[in-house]
Every structure is written in structure tokens, then in C-alpha cells.
Amino acid sequence: MTTTPPTTGAPLQTRRLKNVKALLWFLVGMAASFALFRFWRGMGATTNLTDLTPWGFWIGFDVMGGVALAAGGFVIAATVYVFHLERYRPILRPAVLTAFLGYLAVVVGLLFDLGLPWHIWHLIIFWNPRSPLFEVGWCVMLYLTVLLLEFLPVVLELAKHPVLSRIYHVLKKATVPLVILGIMLSTLHQSSLGSLLLIMPHRIDPLWYSPILPILFFLSAVGLGLMMVTTESLFSAWVYEQHYELDLLQGLAKVAAPVLWLYGAVRIGDLAWRGSLGHVLDSGLAPRLFVAEMLIAVIIPATLLSIPATRRSMKGLAIAAGMTVVGFVFNRINAGGLAMIETTGTRYVPAWTEFIASLGIVAGAALVFFFIAERFHLLPAGPMRHARERLPSVGEFRPMLNRGAAMFVFGTALAVMLLPSSALDGWPVVAQPVHGPGYNDVMIIDGNRNDKGVRFDHKMHLDVVDTQDKCAYCHHMVKPGAHATGCSQCHSDEHLPVSIFNHRLHQEALSKGPGCLTCHEDTSRPKDLEHSRPCLDCHRTMIPEGAAFQPAGAPNIGLAVGYMDAMHGLCLKCHQEQDGGHAGDAPVLSRCNTCHSGVVQPFDPLRPDQRLRVSP
Amino acid sequence: MKAILTDVTLCIGCERCVDACRMANDLGPQLPFRWLLEDGLSSERWCSVLRKEDHFVRRQCMHCIQPACASACPVGALQKTAEGPVIYDDKKCLGCRYCMMACPFGIPRYSWESPIPLVRKCQMCFQNRVSKGQQPGCTAACPVKATIFGEREDLLAEAHRRIQENPDRYQGKVFGETEVGGTCVLYLAPFDLNMLTLGNRLDERPMPERTVYAMTAVPPVFLTMGAVMTGIWWVIDRRMQRQREQDAARRDGHAEPTSPDDGKEG
Fold first, then answer.
1. Among A83, A113, A123, beta carbon nearest to B75
2. Are B250 and B132 contained in the same domain?
3. Which residues lie below 8 Å from residue A28, measured CB to CB, with a gap of 6+?
4. Is A19 an interface residue toward B (CB < 8 Å)?
């Protein structure tokens, strides 16, 4: 496991670390080649986003989740500098770096998600202070700068150049004001991600939508921040095979427990106050998500953390912290996406490319973290065996690149191989053909509007109905709303020989039993569709194998098209031809006799029958 | 403020307005709405005709008096003009699509197929017609005057006159008069027009009001947080300074002096 002892401050490389890094490089490679196609072919070709769901996984996870995960930075900075709890200093630097990288990842994720990412700087010059997104944007910009300044001393402390060391001293002096500014910006920013959702009451399920969303988001960010620092500490200790800072983490856990309980209480109290608490017991997706989220993010970890024995054990802490982190990212994804499924009826499921882009960004951030951890004084007992006294030279970067390059290239290639054809060739929607009215087509229609489908030979009908108005014969607007003529209007008695039903065969087969009464339950009534048993009553399970039409369930069958659909907006063209170019003289078109000879009343949708009574 | 009044009971569903809209705004190939989202709108089709019961309902941007989209847009690419139309400036747009999320009617569409995608929606023909004193393409094209253009007050008066004259014909209210604080596209219909909204039911509260309290709280919260944090820092710092001085005094100089920077070299 252990490698040769490092000589001049070279980073410690364990096999575990190498494997983790290889995986990260692989993910970055996949995301990189996806990025190429994302910007070349556009979002429609490479994601599953739709007009109904214009915000998908990237906003839910990258932005909402990413910002929440970066909350550790301001929480620990406040603990160490404002509350003067010096013993937490060892975990301060990694927490600030994680926050910085987290925000950087949010910005990169946003570049993927923005339709016109090269306009991102417009936030600086075009202002709309009423928009929560305007505030979010500005907070990200400012806080990213503050985090950079907060972290820069870690790099500059090794610098020998007089200008750099001057900057180092200035930044060192400005630490406390910077930290306080960072806390102020974080407070705004964490809560304004909640404000972002306030304008969508129509989209978000009432279990998440609340006027106090900003407060809920801020509270959860504090709890999550503490647990994120814990997770990250445990993870870097694991990956670098160092000892765990359990005494410190125990202290964080002790604070996190009441914060989580408080969050839970405010959330439930708010639901009760708004009268939506009963909705938790409803069936459906949203209540289930809510219960799962509360258990994972709040109730189980808060309970675990309230038990001193759990707080003292590495496993207990890891489980509680991991659950909180996963739970609150889940919460952000719910609020920003999953809680909208039932209200909007969307069928959006993220494409795998969307997941890969997000994973790749996170992997990239992790690689930068390792890079810095291995070259600067970042972790309390980190991989730096010997104190470094100067900035790393270019030569030191080379071995890392060599190792990663292979995995990166492999990931890139694999992603190109797996990308959907739309991403490679462009979005195919542009030249979508308009299908004709269905000549020669054999289709499955629900001609009688009783949710039962039949196999319908359009061409055959067209031949049979050989009149001047043959289209109108079936597709005619018998009722405005353009419902077509139902099958039963012609096929009123299936005794007649038609292709879809063999009356004689049924007659013979049933003659030994109840006979006609099987279908025609009341022989005194007309033997039409309305007074007979539908075929599927008996034939639901009797459909022979290999039949052209296999109804899975009756309601899955679409409606027959109406006149307008069948004509595909041909009416306009027709009308224009018929009224001799007077289409502009509006009301003339409203009279049927513009086209039909004879006296026809102006069409009044409220009295449709009036038109039918007059012969054309 | 200019507005459009659509009388659902007069519409014959000829889709002339849809065609006129396409011409007026120079929209691309007309995809038949059956292949798109159920409501027929798309980035190339800014108005569509839906069916409900025995009637046709024209769908287009509602041009809210207090539009959610304009209040949501971080760069002000969407603006409510004094004349009524809510218009879009593609020179400013970032492509964040917050407007699409915010719209309670689900109107704005995105040209997803393009690598340079834009938000597309009805502009009430503001730049190309209304600002030149013409009426929008759709209302000009309607052969039966089912959809008409005019001043919002006049159209409201006309709508109420029609309801009064023919109370059985209509639902008894003008859709858009009070919905989300009022819209510049008004409807008369024999039934409830909730089909035009997206998701949960709306009330009469303008959408931007739902965020305004959070946004006005921003400066005070920002400053309060700063003051509180500075205060806590100052109080604890002073206490620790005293503590250190006392310790130093107790040790009376025979231990190493404690530098004030001690411990800040993490």
C-alpha cells in the first residue's frame, strides 16, 4: 500500500488514491467530449429538456445542490474566525477550498445549462434587481471572488517573489473582513436559491412550496454545511489513509444535531400552519418523496447525531453525515424538479449525458482538490510529509498528467461512442414531414370514442365512400370540435359483412349457448353498437397471437382524427381558392355558401344543428 | 394599454390567426401542433387553436399586467411595454429559462433545436405592427371578429356588455380581468378556461408579488448579518484579548510573551 517515502515534499500516492483519481479522470474525459457536442449541436440534441420542463437535472443538482454542498465554507469560517473556536482551524482550509471549488463547479455547470453561456457577463451590465436570479448571480460572482481571496494565502504563503508576498500579507490582514463579507453573501445566496422558487407556486407541490422557502434553504444550508465538512474530512482521511479527526468532527456533530432538528420542526410547523400537513398522507409521488427526504436528510441523521456514542464513532458519523448530504441534495433536486412532476404532468427524465456532465464537473473539482492538497499545506495531516517552502515547479505536474491522460482519453472516446445520434448529427426535428391524411395507411383508431380501438383500413374506406365529399363523409364536422363521424354511424348493424367482424362466425359459434343474447342483450332494442356488448368484453383475453392489433389496455388507444386534423389546416387554402382571392374580406369565409352552393346560414358554434338542417 | 379580446363562442377554428401570426413574425416551417406539445405552441408557433367541448380556444401569450417572466429575468431581457405587450430582447438574454419556469401559463418556448437557442413567444406584434399603429396579425386576420384588438378598458367594457346581453352564452366572467393581477389578453367563454394555465390553480395575486418580500428583505438581511457577525467577532475577540492579557499578567512575563497573531497561521 505504501509507496517509497517521499523525498522533497513529493505528494504521497497510495493505490487507493490512484484508483480514485483514475476514475475521476475517466469521468472528466466523458464529460469533456459530451461538452463538445453540447455546444456544437445545442441543448435539444443532447439533453431531454423540454418546453414543459426547461430546468432539469443540471439546475437541480449542479446549481441547487452544488451551492448547498458548498455551505461548509462559510459555516466553518464563521466558527473559526467569528466565534474564535480555534480548535477547528485544521479543517478550515479544506472547507474553504471545497466551497471555492463547489462554487466554481456551479458556474461551470451553469455554463452547460445556459442557452447562451457567452452572455453570462450580461449579469454585470443589465440589471433587474427584482429577479431572485439576478441576486443569485451577483452573490455567486462576489462570493467566488471572496472565497478566492480567502484561499489565496494558502498558495501565496509559499511564494518568494516580493510582490506576491506583499499580496499575501495584505490578504492575511483582510481575513476577518473577508470572512464576514463571505458569511453575509452566503446568507443571501443560500436563502435566495429558495426565493428563486417563490415565483413558481403553480409548478411546485405544496409540500415544498412555502413563503418561507428562503429561511428553510438557509437553515438547511447551515446543517448541511456542518455535515459536508464532516464528510469531506472523513473522505480525505480515507483516501490519503490518514487518521480521522474524530474529536473535531464530534464537535461539529454536536452542533449539527439541533440545527437539523430545528429545520425539521420549522418545516413541519410551516406545513401544519399552511394546512398542507395532511397532504403527506396522500398517495402519489410527492408525499412519498417528502417522507423519504425528511427521513434521509433530517430525522435519521439528527437522531443518530443526538446519541453521543454515534458521534464518537467514525462509522456513525460517516453514516449520519453522508445521509444529511445526500438528503439535502435530494431536497434541492425535489424542490427544483421532482416536486413539479405531478403538477405539470411532465415526462422528463434526465438523459444519461446530463448525469455524465454533472459527474464530470464534480470529478474535475475533486481532481483540483487533490492537486492542491498534494502541493500546498491544506490538510492537517495531509499528504505533505515534508513542509514545502516554495511554489511547485512545472515539472512536478507532469507525472500527474501522464497518469490521468490515458483515463481521460478513454472516457472521451467512450462518451463519443455512446452519444445519441441526435448529438452527433444534430437535432432531427427540423425537417419533420407532415403526414398525409392517411391514404393507404392502416391505422388503429377509436372511431366510436368508447376507448376501444379497431384496426382501420383507410384506403378501403376511401374506395367504398366514392362520393364527391368523400373526406367529409367521415371527417365532417358533424359537431364543431371536429369530431369525426363515429364508425357506428355507418356500421350501425354489424350483421352486415365487414372486415372487422364476422357476424356469421359468431352466430355459429354461439348458437349452442345463449345465442344472439350474448351480444344483443335486449333483442327489442336496435342491434347497433350502443345496444350490443363491445367486442373487447369477450375478446380481451382471446386476441390470437400474432394479431396485427394487440390492445394492451383499452384506454391506450388514441382518438380518431377529426376533420381538421385530417385536412391539416388545408381549410385555409381551400377557402382561399373557393372565395376567389377574397380571403381578406373577412366575414365572407364565415358563411358556408362561400364554398357550398345553396342557402346556408352563417355558422354559429352554439347552434350547430341549424346549419345541418339546411340542405346545401 | 392595448389588449386582445377573444370570444370563444364566436371562433370557428379556422386557424387563420395562427397562419397570420406565422407570416407577421416570419416564423419557420409550421410544424402541425399534433406533433408537438399538446397545446400546439412551439418556438415557431406563437399562437394556436385548442379545442374544448364544442368550442375553439385560441392560445397565446397573456401579456400579464405584472408579468412573472419579466420579473424573473435576471437581465431584463423580457419587458412589459407601456403599450401593453410583453416583449423579448435576444441581445440581452442569457438563456437561463427562468422566464419559462416562472410563467403561470406555460407560454414561453425555447428553440431547443438550435445551438444558439432563444426564448420565443407572442410579442403582440409589438415591433413589427403595433408600434406602427397597426393591429396584431392575428386579430387582423380573424374572419369572424372572434378575436379583436383595442384598448384594454374598451375591450373589458365590450366583454361585459356581451355578457350582459347574452348571459346564457357566457360563463359570467372575463378570463384575464383579474387572473394573476390582470392580463392584456382577455377571453369570453362559456366554460372555465383553466386549461390555459399550467399546474396548480392560480389566484388573483400577481406573480411578482410572491418574490417581492424576499427581494426587499435582501439589503436589510445583508446588513444585519454583517452587523451581527462583526458584533460577535468584536465581543469574543475583546474577551479573548482580555483573557490573554490577564494570563500574561498572571505569568508576569516569565513565560514567552503571547503574540496577538498566534494561532492565526493555520
1. A123
2. no
3. A360, A363, A364, A367, A408, A411
4. no
Task: Please tell me whether residues B152 and B228 are part of one structural domain.
Answer: no
Minimum distance, in Å, between the CA of residue B141 and any CA atom of chain A? 7
> How far apart, in whole angstroms, are the C-alpha atoms of residue A555 and residue A578?
40
- Alpha-carbon span B132 to B126, nearest angstrom: 8
User: Model confidence over A453-497: pLDDT tens digits?
Assistant: 666 777 777 777 666 656 666 665 443 334 455 565 565 544 444
Dist. CA A482–CA A474, nearest whole Å:
11
For B50, other C-beta atoms within 10 Å of its C-beta total: 18
Candidates A212, A199, A327; CA nearest to A270 is A212
Instruction: Please list the residues that pair with B148 across neighbouring strands.
Output: B5
Q: CB A198 to CB B210 under 8 A?
A: yes
ipTM of the complex: 0.87
The nearest CA of chain A is from the CA of B119 a distance in Å of 9
pLDDT digits (tens, 9 = 90+) for B211-251: 888 888 888 989 999 999 999 999 998 998 898 889 888 88
Chain B contact for A589, CB < 8 A?
yes
Report how far residue B139's alpha carbon sits from residue B150's, in angstroms, rounded to the nearest whole number. 10
pLDDT at A184 over 50: yes
Q: Which of A349, A348, A357 is nearest to A37 (CA)?
A: A357
- Please state, as a whole number, how many other Cβ atoms lie within 10 Å of the Cβ of residue B192: 11
Is A302 near chain B, with CB under 8 Å?
Answer: no
CA-to-CA dists, residue A440 to A432, A434, A446, A461, A565, angstroms: 20, 15, 18, 10, 17
Q: For residues B112 and B240, state if they share a domain.
A: no
Residue B169: CATH number of its domain: 3.30.70.20
Q: Which of A208, A255, A201, A263 is nearest to A227 (CA)?
A: A255
- Sorted by where each starts, the structural domains of chain A and their CATH numbers stand as 1-40+359-424 (no CATH), 47-350 (1.20.1630.10), 442-568 (no CATH), 574-616 (no CATH)
Of A557, A558, A571, A555, the residue nearest A477 (C-alpha): A571
Interchain CB distance below 8 Å, A481 and B54: yes
Do the chains contact at B225 and A183, CB–CB below 8 Å? yes
Range of the domain at B262: 217-266
Cell of A257: 444535531
Number of A–B residue contacts, CB under 8 Å:
262
Q: What is the pLDDT of residue A163?
A: 87
Closest residue in B to A177 (Cα) is: B230
Q: Which ranges of A456-583 does DSSP label H, i.e. alpha helix?
A: 458-464, 470-475, 487-490, 503-510, 535-539, 563-567, 570-578
Of B74, B93, B117, the CB nearest to A131: B74
- Does residue B112 share a domain with residue B64? yes
Q: Which residues of A touch B29 (CB under 8 A)?
A: 430
The domain boundary, picked from B162, B186, B207, lies at B207
Q: Cα separation of A194 and A539, whole Å?
A: 54
